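subagent[fold] <- orchestrator: predict structure for attached chain, return tokens only, no commentary.
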Amino acid sequence: MKRFCFSVFSLITVFTTSAQDDKIDADRPDQTESSVNTPKKYFQAEFGFGKLNYSYENFTAAHPTFLLKYGLTERVELRLEGNFQSDYEQLIPNPITTSVFGPVEIGTRIGLFKEKGLRPNAALLVHLGLPFTSTMHDANQKLFPSFRFSFQNSLSDHVALGYNVGAQWDGYDNTPTWLYTFAPGFNIGERWYAFAEVFGFLKEGTEAETLVDTGLAYDFTNNTRIDISVGKGLGDSQTKNFFAIGFSFRVPTSKRAVSSTQ
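subagent[fold] -> orchestrator:
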């Protein structure tokens, strides 16, 4: 019992004392991936739960999504992400619910250059999807890559503009889905963060999809954050609306990592 209490106390101490001058930077809750890497020798985890509502009462529930990150160097971050989800299809007379662990994606984020004047902070994110890791593996689906460039400009001490552009493949054909995001973010006081965002997808032979969302995040400590977001599709978007909640935390993997961020 004493060992358990000591372990809990040590974990709380890590969350509340390390990286005091450098708050956690999470890729959620917006769709815009950050251009800031996880600090060197830090492990960071981001979990989310949500629901996407489509037409005809169909929906997808995420329970949860996860993104695990590790700061390998100051410029290189290792990434692993995936999700558990349930798809509900309103069929007559019998609706169908299918639960699945989706394909895991492995990847990296590489810092390209730091912000200077009008030049933004920039990073390149590259992922590779592994279809065989899914509980509903389709033998016809091949490895599927994705990439995006992430940029951020600081407009003031409390306002920043993040934006992405990139492409992703689904493993079934060679036609990419192009994507973009545009998200101004606002630091409110020392612990609150808010954002508004527009993002979209475009694939040859299909209708372009545009969506908007907004949300809030609160930093309990410099190493722990909770968030909530809501959004909707515009025009003929397949997505009617969606919402999500999430939790993110990071911990150092060495004492040297703690000292380097203070």
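orchestrator: received. Logging for downstream: The radius of gyration is 19 Å. The chain has a mean pLDDT of 91.
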